[in-house]
Design goal:
Layout: E1 3-8, H1 16-23, E2 29-32, E3 41-45, E4 48-52, E5 65-68, E6 73-74, H2 76-88, E7 98-101, E8 105-106, H3 109-121, H4 134-142, H5 149-152, H6 155-163, H7 171-174, H8 178-192, E9 196-197, H9 199-208, E10 213-216, H10 240-247, E11 256-262, E12 265-267, H11 280-288, E13 301-303, E14 305-306, H12 307-317, E15 321-325, E16 335-343, E17 349-350, H13 357-362, E18 364-371, H14 388-401, E19 405-409, E20 417-419
Parallel strand pairs: 1-10, 1-11, 2-5, 2-10, 5-7, 6-8, 7-9, 11-15, 14-16, 15-19
Antiparallel strand pairs: 3-4, 12-13, 16-17, 16-18, 19-20
Helix pairs in contact: 3-4, 6-8
Bound molecules: guanosine-5'-diphosphate (GDP), 6-O-phosphoryl inosine monophosphate and magnesium ion.
Magnesium ion binds next to loops.
Length: 428
């Protein structure tokens, strides 16, 4: 039995979808533990590219059951749309294969309208949210006035919750009425009913039966509402600790915590990013890495790998190992920079992530310059075949991070993967 948590080590889009898909090959259950359809995970299988938002990346294996845990926020319209579009791609989603927690909170159209209204009121201080209603839905959850999936199945209680909701500001302009939302979402609840169950019970029973389970995070460590670059974060807990509350399992059941990190860094939306390269280096990373958001089509901001951040991610998540993705994107660079510390304007130097975002916004990165390899790594599957400079880069990152790199990804396809730990010993 292994229980593995997969966590983004940066600001999201690290390639968690590809890594979950790779590690899910021999797994019985893949469970998403937080976030909603703000996520966008691209998984490439053969010639097909699947864009997943809410449905866990394990769905592409017939043998795997995919689960949305209680920590996820569910947009029923978005989810049913995703189920339909996967069906068109030949991926059937039956209630045997897909389960949703009855106590996951529901994103209503009013939450989307509130998200967009709150962003416009922020003026020049926008967070750059995905506009999917994530923040307002989690706000209602924490304020104890949220609507859960089990409420959609109880029409009179759902009506009362809608009437007590905190959306008088947006009801007129959204063009919706409480009554129309009640009717429509009661109907959507009925369509989702076959999938809705007690997923904590299901996952714990699976673990008890010796099954292999992956707990899949969305977003990334620096978007975590507690440990990220607050307030430029999402409204949930992508870090490993969030997996236990978001699924309903005890921490003693987890064997492995995998951090997924790009060989460089990207960020979508606003907020400080010390190693960002607003120059031809950033453009080359953006173009070679095809760094365009899966959910909002926004161009991702790009910069060099930041070891101060990665070491912090190792610390707050307790990574047992790291999967390093998109190494191939660095193939053309003559020199590769890695940030090892920060300097404040007054000359002070630090090597730990500063918690005050004003500090983080003013630091200048200190770099180690490593030689590039300037050759194509995208066809390699064996560490021994990597150019010496690429091996040196990987070993340098591994040594600085203080945990082993277990897998290197050199392309979006399943076979563009270099495994450093044999699959049969994973999680042992
Ligand atoms: P996620 O949100 O963490 O799952 O990441 P996304 O799917 O949003 O973004 C990662 C993108 O990089 C996707 O388009 C993947 O197909 C692609 N990708 C994943 N691994 C690699 C890799 O090693 N090399 C390259 N070039 N692309 C990759
Ligand atoms: P995946 O799972 C990258 C960012 C948004 C914004 C902030 C808050 O694909 O890695 P929200 O809509 O969540 O309230 O927006 O978080 N963000 C992501 N950035 N990848 C994601 O997901 C993201 N999900 C949210 O851009 O800055
Ligand atoms: Mg993504």
């Amino acid at each position: 039995m292994t229980v593995t948590i997969i966590v983004g080590a940066q600001w999201g889009d690290e390639g968690k979808g590809k890594i979950t898909d790779i590690l899910a090959e021999k797994v019985n259950l893949v469970v998403r533990y937080q976030g909603g359809n703000n996520a966008g995970h691209t998984v490439v299988v053969g010639d097909k590219k699947f864009k997943l938002h809410l449905i866990p990346s394990g769905i592409l294996y017939d043998s795997c059951v995919s689960v949305l845990g209680n920590g996820v926020v569910v947009d029923p319209e978005g989810l049913l749309g995703e189920i339909d579009s996967l069906a068109k791609e030949g991926v059937s989603i039956s209630p045997h294969k897909f389960k949703i927690s009855s106590i996951a909170h529901v994103i209503l159209p009013f939450h989307r309208a509130l998200d967009q209204q709150q962003e416009s009121l922020r003026g020049g201080n926008k967070i750059g949210t995905t506009g999917r209603g994530i923040g307002p839905t989690y706000t209602d959850k924490i304020s104890r006035r949220g609507v859960r999936l089990l409420d959609l199945l109880n029409p009179s209680r759902f009506k009362t919750l809608l009437e007590q909701g905190n959306w008088s500001d947006v009801v007129p302009q959204s063009g919706l009425t409480i009554d129309s939302v009640w009717r429509h979402y009661t109907e959507l609840g009925q369509r989702l009913a076959p999938y809705i169950t007690d997923t904590s019970l299901l996952v714990n029973q699976a673990i008890d039966a010796g099954q292999h389970v992956i707990l899949e995070g969305a977003q990334g460590t620096f978007l975590d509402v507690d440990h990220g670059t607050y307030p430029f974060v999402t409204s949930s807990s992508p870090i490993a600790g969030g997996a236990c509350t978001g699924v309903g399992i005890g921490p003693n059941r987890v064997n492995r915590v995998v951090g997924v990190a790009k060989a460089y860094v990207t960020r979508v939306g606003a907020g400080p990013f010390p190693t960002e390269q607003c120059n031809e280096i950033g453009t080359l990373l953006q173009v070679r890495g095809a760094e365009v958001g899966t959910t909002t089509n926004r161009t991702r901001r790009c910069g060099w790998l930041d070891m101060v951040c990665l070491k912090y991610a190792v610390r707050v998540n307790g990574f047992t190992d790291i999967c390093l993705t998109k190494l191939d994107v660095l193939d053309e660079f003559k020199e590769i920079l890695v940030c090892t510390g920060y300097r404040f304007p007054d000359g002070r130097i630090i090597h730990e992530f500063p918690l005050d975002y004003d500090d983080f916004a003013q630091v200048e990165p200190l770099y180690e310059v490593l030689p590039g390899w300037q050759s194509d790594t995208s066809g390699l599957t064996d560490f021994a075949d990597l150019p010496p400079q690429a091996k040196h880069y990987i070993q340098y990152v591994e040594q600085m991070a203080g945990v082993p790199i277990s897998l290197i990804s050199v392309g979006s396809r399943r076979n563009q993967t270099i495994r450093l730990i044999p699959i049969e010993t994973e999680g042992k």
